Amino acid sequence: MVRIDNSIEHKSIKLDVKDEKILDLLSENSRTQISEVAKKISQSRDTTNYRINRLKEQGVIESFYPRINYSKLGYNIYHIFILADEGKDYKKLIEHLKKHDNALLLFEYSDSWDFEVIMLTRNIKDLDNILNKVQSEFSDTIIDLVQTLEIETYHSIIFSHHFNKKSHNTSNKEISEEVYKLDENDIKILKALTHDSRKSTYEIAKEVSLNAD
Question: Would the pLDDT of 145 be above 60?
Answer without folding.
Answer: yes
